[in-house]
Amino acid sequence: MKVCGLRVENRISPIDLSAPKPVFGWRVTAAEENWRQKEYRIRMTKEGRETVWDTGFVEGNRMTEIPYEGLLLEPDTRYFWKVDCVSKEGEIASSEETWFETGLFGPKDWKGIYIGETKDHEYHLYRKTFEVEQKVRKAKLYVCGLGHHEFYINGKRVSDRVLEPGWSDYRKTCFYSAYDVTDLLVPGKNAAGVKLGDGMFNVPGAASEGRYVYYERSYGKCKLNVQLHITYEDGTSAFVVTDESWKQTKSPILYCCIYGGELYDGRLWPEGFSTAEYDDKDWEPVTQVEPPMGRVTASPAEPVKVMQTFEPVSVTETAPGVYLYDLGTNFSGWARIRIQTDGNSAGKKIVMTPGELLDESMRPNQKATGHDYRWEYILNEKEAQEFAPDFTYTGFRYVQVEGAVPETEAEKGAGIPVLQSLTGEFLYTAVETTGSFTCSNQLFNDIHRIVTQAILSNMKSYFTDCPHREKLPWLEQSHLIGPSIFYNYGVQNIYAKMEQDMADSQRENGLVPDICPEYVVFGYHEGFVDSPEWGSACILNPWYLYKRYGTTSLLERYYDKMERYIRYLESRTHHHILHHGLGDWLDIGPCTPYSQNTAVPIVATSIYYYDLGVMEEISRLLGKEEEAAHYQEVRKEVFREYNLQFLDNQTGRYGTGSQASQALSLMAGLVPKEYEEKAVKQLRDEVVKRNYAITAGDIGHPFLIAAMMKYGMSDLLNEMTNITETPGYGYQVVNGATTLTEEWDGPNPERPHGSQNHLMLGSIEEWFYGGLAGLASIRSGLPFDEVLIKPHIAKGVNFCQASMTHPYGKVEVSWKRRGTQAEVTVTVPPNLTAHLESEDGSVKRKVGSGVHTYLVPAK
């Protein structure tokens, strides 16, 4: 028995904790079966070993979301903690001691001023020298560099994080970054250097570059606040902060836009500018600027990093001097090039144009992603050079290069720069991969691959709709695809950050707009600002986190915001029915993108009713019985009116009887018990009569997956997912998609269209994991510490393996056909209970931790 995996705020030893009442969690590994925790004890001290919290032994088996109840936490302080666990048999085990550090809590903790830019499209490098007078015990750096920053000390970057800090609603919240830089300091003279770029903070337009700019907006010009806290061995401290003694010079970044790309002049890069020896006599004094509008705090989400790389699978000369690099897969990020010159190429320019698709002349087609996005690098006099953009990225597969030749063609002409390498760098948030899936059906494996590629491509400070054209946080996908995302990745912290985005963007009347942070306000359709299926993320996301991870802290913290939103929706009803919104966006038919198969009131009201049910459950969970009673009464009225207006009680059909209409009504709980069988039959018939083709769109499809799983139609889902001839998952794979596309028929070989990198249609993962493998999750109806295992032994599938990481450990399932049966093997971690079942009901077992095997019928 071993206590391990200690986390605070779902992180291992963070150095920038800003939550006043953080939550704690741990795991246990144990050889014995059916292990359960009986008691726990948390002991915590701060630097100097003063006890700040001791729970004593607490009865209970909970090992996550334990709220801090000790002395008030102090800023910029290290705390140590450990956990003692007692098993149900009375065995005691203690964890190794671990630690975390708090960050800066508010303006009073910052000692410096803000320095920065005063004009758009103007960028500087910043520099400061300082003395280290004694032996250093610890050095901690805080940087609020908006929009994005790169920080150097003594010639080295302080971190491999990129696009720092994360995006936010800068009117309300701005993030700082914290780094442990102890190992970068040297005795005596040291130097710091900083590069800044606009990011999402400032999108001033294209200037004279003629670049793509999706939407102009600004929260101010680039600005910087720095605080380096040096603690010496004798316990004394020193601080290096931004003040008038810093210096600046023109940046090599001549143009930088999150939407338009980057122009970088390598001749302007001052080599060694962040070293103490650099001569800065020609640098200028800095300008003090106003602080940002929002409160400055640490981001709860993990940072973005270069997480994968891709090498070209082919290089083709498409026109004289024009080369196309195919990286083999669509992803989000940038290209890094390494260049060899003859030493006489200063002033020459290399232009890289990325794209997802190609036009007839084999040039990148940016029609759906934003025309005139490019990266440009002006060479300096060096023979060996390297370039990658700093503060902009896009979604792409191909890179067109002009101004250099591949190494294989170096003989083409003297003086032409040679591209020694071009590498695609895939950027996404540094989260844990917490799930795995594979089966004997290669098409299903390929679908899984393109879905997860799209999820990662759009995982930044929030989930973007696409990594190029908009890069916007459209909310609906976060709850609709949330269950699928939760299987694959540990995203509690990103979702916590997005909940804060929604709280920051919520309007006075309670509306949570479709996009949060609300960087853009579209005026040509009300639904692009206020669609219930989008704003409902503020209610459904924290509820799903509770069901998946046991997270109660967000429910408590944001309950008032959730309540304000549901009251707003209530105010917009007419006879308890909502009539506004985008409906089942991008469903299949001739009139895309607007909802065409399912009436808007059916979609909007189903989500509203679903919200009401969730709010009732949350209210009861938090002991708010009066509020729960209110939601229960409102639900009764909505239920009555919805069925009065939309149910055909002779057939069980809702509205047009579309896939979305039936699935939404069933999964929201709007179907009276006496009509449930008819409604389910209507859904089954609707799928079969369309030859298993998908008609549901963005909103309806996740509910279609869930309804078919709930009502025993996994056989139909198997048929639907195997189809390759009509628009859907298989269609995308066989037509060359390497990421999930925006529209079901996006990679149509005759007319490829729309974004080729969207995650919003990725709900099939819920069936792969929860249906085919049988790892039921948030929809099982079981308590947090219990899991349901009920695999679907699908026609044409001979084996399946999947795993997901519960906060208590990894749950694994595998099954393999053995004649007329399938053998199922399940691994359950300590402190968790599993319900092992078969679809026909012949097997029902309840087990604890350990490895368990059972047989189920296999047709």
Describe this structure in words.
This protein starts with a strand and ends with a strand. Helices cover 21% and strands 31% of the residues. It has 15 helices and 47 strands. It is globular, with a radius of gyration of 28 Å. With 859 residues, the chain is α+β, with helices and mostly antiparallel strands. Strands 15, 23, 24, 27, 28, 29, 30, 33, 34, 35, 36 and 37 form a twelve-stranded mixed sheet that branches. Strands 3, 4, 5, 7, 8 and 9 form a six-stranded antiparallel sheet that branches. Strands 10, 12, 16, 20, 21 and 26 form a six-stranded mixed sheet that branches.
Quickly list its features.
alpha+beta; globular; six-stranded antiparallel beta sheet; twelve-stranded mixed beta sheet; 47 strands; 859 residues
Furnish the topology, listing elements before pairings.
Layout: E1 2-8, E2 23-29, E3 37-46, E4 50-54, E5 58-59, E6 66-67, E7 78-87, E8 92-94, E9 98-101, E10 115-116, E11 124-132, E12 136-146, E13 148-153, E14 156-157, E15 161-162, E16 173-180, E17 188-197, E18 202-203, E19 217-218, E20 223-232, E21 237-241, E22 247-250, E23 253-257, E24 261-265, E25 284-285, E26 295-298, E27 304-310, E28 314-319, E29 322-340, E30 349-355, E31 357-358, E32 364-365, E33 374-378, E34 384-387, E35 394-402, E36 405-406, E37 418-429, E38 435-439, H1 442-457, H2 476-480, H3 482-488, H4 492-505, H5 532-535, H6 537-549, H7 553-571, H8 600-621, H9 625-646, E39 647-648, E40 653-654, H10 659-668, H11 676-689, H12 700-710, H13 714-722, H14 729-734, H15 764-772, E41 786-789, E42 799-806, E43 809-818, E44 821-828, E45 833-837, E46 844-847, E47 850-857
Parallel strand pairs: 16-26, 24-33, 36-37, 41-45
Antiparallel strand pairs: 1-2, 2-6, 3-4, 3-5, 3-7, 7-8, 7-9, 10-20, 11-17, 11-22, 12-16, 12-20, 13-14, 13-17, 15-27, 18-19, 20-21, 22-25, 23-24, 27-37, 28-29, 29-34, 29-35, 29-37, 30-33, 30-35, 31-32, 38-42, 39-40, 42-43, 43-44, 44-47, 45-46
